[in-house]
Design goal:
6 helices, alpha/beta
Length: 189
């Protein structure tokens, strides 16, 4: 979120952040948003651990509609979005994942990559669909897996790549440079 907020503030992304929402009351993202004088709000997620309950989903949708958002950029949001949320914002929800999807979807992808023994991993920006990390891929950046890597060192290098890639993709989306045809992202210049 910080990389995207800074890119918006400096004009690198021709957009503004309308609101920052979190399902975690003491989330650092809310503090980072408030430091930048951005609207920042906690919305209780409801009774489920891995997804929003119906009431929470409606609250998120209502607030995003009120804020008149054109694009929803997920950053550290660890709940599965489904149903009404995705219908309300079809092809307008993007996420970044710490692997080269479709490899290693789900939680702790950097640990999955280390455990599997791959030599290269990375990050993926994708549209969110009804599946888990299965939406159309917009862009990827590779990160080498080093012999001395630990989960922490590999995760940090992937996060560095995420901070480079995510603002680039958000900029391209804001400028209308990406179209999705089927599952393929087509970039224009």
């Amino acid at each position: 979120m910080v990389a995207i907020a800074e890119a918006c503030a400096t004009g690198q992304i021709p957009a503004e952040i309308a609101v920052v929402l979190s399902d975690v009351a003491d989330a650092g993202i809310l503090d980072r948003a408030r430091e930048r004088k951005l609207p920042a709000e906690f919305i209780p997620p409801g009774k489920f651990r891995t997804k929003l309950d119906e009431e929470a989903e409606q609250a998120f949708v209502k607030r995003l509609v009120e804020a008149q958002v054109d694009l929803i950029v997920l950053a550290g949001f660890m709940r599965i979005l489904k149903g009404e949320f995705l219908r309300s914002f079809a092809n307008r929800v993007v996420n970044i994942h710490p692997s080269l999807l479709p490899a290693f979807p789900g939680l702790e992808a950097w640990k999955q990559a280390l455990d599997y023994g791959v030599r290269v991993t990375g990050c993926t920006v994708h549209f969110v669909d009804q599946g888990i990390d299965s939406g159309p891929i917009l862009a990827q950046e590779t990160v080498p897996v080093l012999a001395e890597d630990t989960p922490a060192t590999l995760h940090e290098r992937i996060q560095q790549a995420e901070r480079r890639l995510y603002p680039q993709v958000v900029r391209a989306l804001a400028e209308g440079q990406i179209a999705v045809k089927g599952r393929q992202a087509v970039w224009s210049n």
